[in-house]
């Protein structure tokens, strides 16, 4: 039986649902002369911390690029704030494939835009770059430090953890409302650290700003799908071409469910997609010497990525990149030779 399957499909379909789109928004930046300049900043909803921004001074003006060398701070009003720091950063990976045997941090001094998460008496910052996530903190006017957490391999290839960030927090965020047990159970995760820094600022009666309260979580969309498919089937017998059968082309129906998870970065431009679909093909062909009958049923499971391209506020295009797997459901093929 000849069986053809498409492994990757590229589809462009117009959709009229509206999500956030990348656009210039009201913001500001502070230059090296400590001048605060109001402007419009292209909001890319950065997954990785940027090294430059695109901005305009008015809606109809030509855009320009300012880099980390010329900007000390920038923000999009009420949404995002980044500040430039020279920091000692340990870039050790927590991914098993890239994990090292080094237990202690290996610091390199770099100039980075750090994303401000919590700003008060105790400030919390984050840095993301290609699956690397590190957190930094600063108390009042002290020097900024990285919160140290390292996963490493022992001599017998076991995974161990350096949780020095807990000692840093214990030494610097002293407050009756934060217990030793709470710090000992603390995880090196953005939401856990945010909650702790909020708790500390409240505990010491410090006014603070939370730049994460409006951050988006991924949206989940579920929809039913039905369609018409044009299918063909041809069977070849290597022993005798007299038993070859071409069932030709038939129209058939398919029904399935599309599940889409909008990823919470880059202004909802990317989504994970899976669409299990039931399909069938039934046909019978008779000749003077041969009767062939097929009853084919399967669940087809496309999965992959979707990328949205916004046209305007009311419409957008999307492109799917999908891998398709096909699972047979007790399909039957019968061949009867007339005697």
Short description:
The protein has 339 residues and is mostly beta strands.
Structure characterization notes:
By secondary structure, the protein is mostly beta strands. It folds into two domains: 8-16 and 217-337, no CATH class; 78-210, no CATH class. It is built from three helices and 21 strands. The protein has helices at 164-172, 180-184, 190-203, and strands at 8-15, 23-31, 36-43, 52-56, 64-67, 71-76, 80-90, 107-119, 122-129, 132-139, 145-147, 150-153, 159-162, 209-210, 220-235, 245-262, 270-274, 277-286, 290-310, 316-328, 332-337. The two termini are 24 Å apart.
Which features characterize this protein?
mainly beta; 11-stranded antiparallel sheet; 339 residues; 54% strand; 21 strands; 8-stranded antiparallel sheet; single chain
Mean pLDDT: 82
Taken in chain order, the helices and strands follow as EEEEEEEEEEEEEHHHEEEEEEEE
Question: Which regions contain 5 or more consecutive residues with pLDDT less than 50?
Answer: 1-20
Number of domains: 2
For the largest beta-sheet, the strand count, sense and barrel status come to:
11 strands, antiparallel
End-to-end C-alpha gap: 24 Å
What does the secondary structure layout of this molecule look like, with pairings?
Layout: E1 8-15, E2 23-31, E3 36-43, E4 52-56, E5 64-67, E6 71-76, E7 80-90, E8 107-119, E9 122-129, E10 132-139, E11 145-147, E12 150-153, E13 159-162, H1 164-172, H2 180-184, H3 190-203, E14 209-210, E15 220-235, E16 245-262, E17 270-274, E18 277-286, E19 290-310, E20 316-328, E21 332-337
Antiparallel strand pairs: 1-20, 2-3, 2-6, 3-4, 4-5, 6-7, 7-8, 8-9, 8-14, 9-10, 10-11, 12-13, 15-16, 16-17, 16-18, 17-19, 18-19, 19-20, 19-21
